[in-house]
């Protein structure tokens, strides 16, 4: 494979005879990206997708010259010089920023669709990096998956504050309950609901066609399958650990739950009463109870004052 082009301005001719832009010279200018770290990521994103043929030159050109440009304006305002530092709060702020932007062509506020495309482009770069440059993006999921799901719909998502996440991760280092420890790692990595976590199957991890792994699960609230999501090695390792922990239990598990990832033995003194000793899927009430104990014993609190 040819080496990546040098400089901030690339001239690439579309040599795909099946392309409607065959023979056109695309001039990519990366000089508007002030952060050298982000610029290197974007250059790599464009070059690798072009060389492998994942995206057309025209699409990559539109992403870089228009849609990602909006994010860079936001990053400059908020002093963001690394994609790795992005948090849920930054995404929330970016969405608010998109609401205030004016189209250079129409001189009117960005349409709903233009705002969505701008955010989707950032998502595309992040998702690509999760597979190919995992050290350059956040270790946890920063998108809810519900951004821009309805025209003019007001959406409010409450995220766990970053300082609380830091406390949780520190406490996980000494957590002895493997279901809770690895379950939280999976939740952080994917952003899925606890109910969906408890329905995960042992075959949820699949190798990616190019590199790395993806995870698949059912979003039970919306009754639909989640599109395969690239995941970091920490998430894959957590799932492998849970499969290892439950390997012996799985042989004696009730038939309908044999392929469920999180299974355990029902202990006495719970709401199941006479079912004590049965090996089956862990219930939401049990997992929430573990979470409450985890938070209490580790004194995990939000430093931000309540409004």
What can you see in these coordinates?
- A hairpin with a 4-residue loop joins strand 5 (218-219) and strand 6 (224-225).
- It is built from ten helices and nine strands.
- It is mainly α and 307 residues long.
- The protein has two domains: 9-136, no CATH class; 162-297, Topoisomerase I, Chain A, domain 3 (Alpha-Beta Complex), CATH 3.90.15.
- The protein is elongated.
- Strands 3-4-7 form a three-stranded antiparallel sheet. A two-stranded antiparallel ribbon has the order 1-2.
Task: Please give the structural blueprint.
Blueprint: E1 9-13, E2 25-29, H1 36-52, H2 57-77, H3 88-100, H4 112-132, H5 162-172, H6 178-190, H7 194-197, E3 205-207, E4 213-215, E5 218-219, E6 224-225, E7 229-231, H8 233-245, H9 247-250, E8 263-265, E9 279-281, H10 284-297
Antiparallel strand pairs: 1-2, 3-4, 4-7, 5-6, 8-9
Helix pairs in contact: 1-2, 2-4, 6-8
């Amino acid at each position: 494979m040819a080496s990546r082009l040098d400089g901030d301005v690339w001239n690439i001719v579309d040599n795909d005879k099946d392309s409607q832009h065959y023979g056109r010279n695309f001039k990519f200018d990366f000089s508007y990206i002030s952060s050298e770290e982000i610029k290197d990521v974007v250059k790599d994103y464009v070059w690798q997708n072009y060389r492998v043929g994942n995206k057309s030159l025209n699409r990559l050109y539109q992403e870089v010259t228009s849609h990602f440009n909006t994010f860079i304006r936001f990053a400059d305002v908020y002093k963001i010089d690394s994609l790795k530092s992005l948090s849920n709060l930054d995404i929330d702020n970016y969405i608010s920023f998109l609401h205030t932007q004016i189209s250079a062509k129409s001189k009117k506020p960005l349409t709903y669709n233009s705002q969505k495309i701008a955010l989707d482009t950032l998502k595309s770069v992040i998702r690509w990096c999760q597979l190919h440059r995992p050290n350059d993006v956040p270790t946890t999921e920063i998108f809810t998956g519900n951004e821009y799901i309805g025209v003019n719909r007001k959406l409010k998502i409450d995220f766990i504050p970053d300082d609380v996440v830091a406390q949780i991760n520190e406490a996980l280092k000494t957590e002895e309950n493997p279901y809770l420890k690895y379950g939280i790692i999976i939740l952080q990595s994917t952003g899925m609901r606890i109910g969906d976590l408890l329905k995960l199957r042992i075959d949820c991890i699949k190798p990616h066609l190019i590199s790395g792994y993806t995870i698949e699960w059912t979003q039970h609230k919306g009754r639909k399958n989640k599109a395969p999501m690239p995941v970091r090695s920490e998430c894959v390792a957590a799932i492998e650990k849970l499969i290892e922990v439950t390997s012996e239990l799985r042989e004696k598990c009730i038939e309908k739950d044999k392929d469920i990832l999180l299974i355990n033995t029902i202990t006495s003194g719970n709401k199941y009463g006479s079912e004590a000793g049965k090996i089956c899927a862990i219930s939401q009430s049990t997992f929430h109870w573990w979470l409450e104990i985890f938070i209490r014993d580790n004194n995990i609190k939000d430093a931000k004052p309540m409004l």
